[in-house]
Amino acid sequence: MNISDQEVHLWFILNEEIQEPEVLLRLGSLLNAAEATQQKRYRNPSLQHRYVVTHGVLRSLLSAYEPRTSPQDWKFLYNQYGKPYLNTEPHQVLLRFNISHTDKVNVIVFGLIDEIGVDVEHVERELNYDAMVNNLFSYQDIAELSGLEGENRKKRFFDIWTLKEAYIKACGMGLSIPLDRFYFSFSDPDRISIGFDQGCDERPEAWQFWQVQPTESHIAAVALKSHHPKQLTVRKLDANVLNSLFSSRMKMEQRAYSSGPKQSE
Ligand SMILES: CC(C)(COP(=O)(O)OP(=O)(O)OC[C@H]1O[C@@H](n2cnc3c(N)ncnc32)[C@H](O)[C@@H]1OP(=O)(O)O)[C@@H](O)C(=O)NCCC(=O)NCCS
After folding, report:
1. 90: phi then psi, degrees, rounded to nearest 5
2. Is the CB of 101 under 6 A from ligand 1?
């Protein structure tokens, strides 16, 4: 599978579609010891399931993009805020990724850019919107929401929330970036733009954002820092896609095994 430097790929996975025990066993077998420990730390079986699906699928997709590394052999590095990156040795892989989960939907974004982030949220969840807006959003965001009511207000709230999360995840610095120091403008229907408070060392034109609706009740946002326009492709990964990734990997490994060095007689 190919990805060019003009592309960004967003994969989404519905947890309920990845249920077959053999598939889950196979995904689980791809995790390293730290991931297996992390999975077991979750007491809730649905969180365990979500973890194995996301991380097993991440490994499988990485190897589909970069077949020289087997899914179980990927190694990750983390910055001081916990953002995972690929350890690019030994093949100097340029691929970058970011993941986000909800109860039902997981998303994984891939691109050839360090600053890439994604967030997905369940828009039906119970939240104290007003408290979040007042405590976390900038005055420009608050102005954007003022005058909106009911469903329109809720929709715009989740637009802003997912975009903020995608942005801080792209930067990789978690909540050390104050969420009220930047804001979004939706006035151009073809382009969501970001604005920064004075004193922020960021250029709005360097950022690109996309919004995607993987289900009726989920919204995702992707953020990416690049001066060159990119094209977002959205793909769904279901059990069929996953099985075809597994079988092409198996065929590749069989070919490598049968064409490997022959034992001398
Ligand atoms: C990581 C963070 C940025 C987002 O976490 P989250 O929304 O709870 O969770 P998501 O499902 O979107 O993302 C989690 C994944 O992001 C990745 N991640 C972890 N730290 C990260 C960081 N600093 N930057 C980017 N990605 C990170 C990991 O892969 C993690 O999944 P994993 O643990 O299974 O490997 C976290 O710092 C956070 O708590 N954010 C703020 C929450 C909030 O109050 N938001 C209000 C917005 S208005």
Report:
1. -95, 0
2. yes
